[in-house]
Amino acid sequence: MSDIVIKAENLGKKYIIGHQAENGRYQALRDVLMHNAQTLWNKTKDLAKGNPLIHGDTLEEVWALKDVSFEIRRGEAVGIIGRNGAGKSTLLKILSRITDPSAGRVTIDGRVASLLEVGTGFHPELSGRENIYLNGTILGMSRKEINQKFDEIVDFAGIEKYLDTPVKRYSSGMYVRLAFAVAAHLEPEILVVDEVLAVGDAEFQKKCLGKMGDVTKEGRTVLFVSHNMVALSALCFRSINLDSGKIIYNGHVDTGVLIYMNGLSNIDNPISYKTRSATGTGEMKIINSFLLRNGKPTLSNVACGDKVDICIEFECCTEKPRFHFALDIYNSKGNRIAYCNSLYTMGVSWVQLPKIFLAKCSFPKLPFFPDEYRVDISIHCNDERADYLQGALSLKVYEGDFYGSGKIPPISGASPIMLLEHKWTIDN
Ligand SMILES: Nc1ncnc2c1ncn2[C@@H]1O[C@H](COP(=O)(O)OP(=O)(O)OP(=O)(O)O)[C@@H](O)[C@H]1O
């Protein structure tokens, strides 16, 4: 499977819930079947006694995941983002083989260690020491290999004094510390972590993030579910955003976080990036672009003086790229009014890249007069144009208080194009 370690194809997970779920909590299939057997027995009794049958107990299908497909490469740290009930835990449970998918399939190349809920993988009656060996053995490690890691695990978890105490006597904090230490140190090829960091204190959370970072540097893969966007963007390069069981975004983590924070269903753009092919050598490809107005996504509306970021997601399809970007901005009369080329701004080309990355061209105070503008994006790689997208974005610029003076320059017949930062003084 080359460097692809996880491949999910049209994954689906269906749960069946009874309509009369007690206390509003989920019912597993087993609960539903038991409940139904009971209901059937009661109904048979009613029938024997000549009582009328009461209908109304119905079963409902809930698709926790639907048509989920993605690939994850070796050494990638991927964040799974989504609101409560989006399907994140269900996805991790399938990847950790705790539950089977109802549809589709997943191919995994490597040993998975997962930390999904406090307690997963630990035997309550066994001591901390015994659980370390048990988990190591489950991960396919020899006793010698576990011995080599043992002190590091105990040290990381900070549980020396309680090593021989059954883990059922541990506080939840101790439990999580040990569980994380075991999962991260026993050299799994794929580490799956679900929100566990919420339980530890700030210092331990920092330690965990550092350790997960090390795990990816060693070429191993990390999948991380969290509602903590700061932690997610610090650790992960890519995010997969889920909403109602479906993937709504799969790309650079910064974009994924924006989509999540702004409750968007996606960052809309009329261009279908998925189906377009590169206009150039294709060594790099533009895969998405969007606008931020004062830090929030916008389709095209901005005002003079706003902080505007033009964000472009690229995919790198070559080894050792040397690259730079350029934006061309045209007004509604077709005049090319700005050319923003990173080679001139930075003085050098960029050279190092992950597979997917986000480039941002920031205008701290947009100096354009009200009009409609077209933005063309190009990327040059190893001295040749790799991709070019005409009309990637449009900017609809409205009047704004560019100078912060409370007065807005009027638009007249012969409007200027640009607003210049300048000063007026009087010498007496
Ligand atoms: N055992 C179950 N039986 C029935 N429905 C379930 C079960 N587990 C999950 N679901 C349903 O599947 C959907 C996805 O749940 P899941 O726990 O995967 O979401 P999540 O994104 O992890 O949420 P959270 O952030 O709250 O942990 C929810 O609508 C939930 O109602």
TrEMBL record:
Q: Does the keyword Transport apply?
A: yes
KW ATP-binding (keyword) present: yes
Task: Cite the ABC transporter domain residue spans from the record.
Answer: 42-269
Per UniProt, which keywords does this protein have?
ATP-binding, Nucleotide-binding, Transport
The record's listing under Pfam families reads: ABC_tran (PF00005), Wzt_C (PF14524)
* Organism superkingdom: Bacteria
Gene Ontology MF terms: ABC-type transporter activity; ATP binding; ATP hydrolysis activity
Name the SMART domains for this protein.
Answer: AAA
An example Gene Ontology cellular component term from the record?
A: membrane
Enumerate the PANTHER family for this protein.
Answer: TEICHOIC ACIDS EXPORT ATP-BINDING PROTEIN TAGH (PTHR46743:SF2)
- Family named by the database record: Belongs to the ABC transporter superfamily.
Give the protein name, as stated in the record. ABC transporter ATP-binding protein
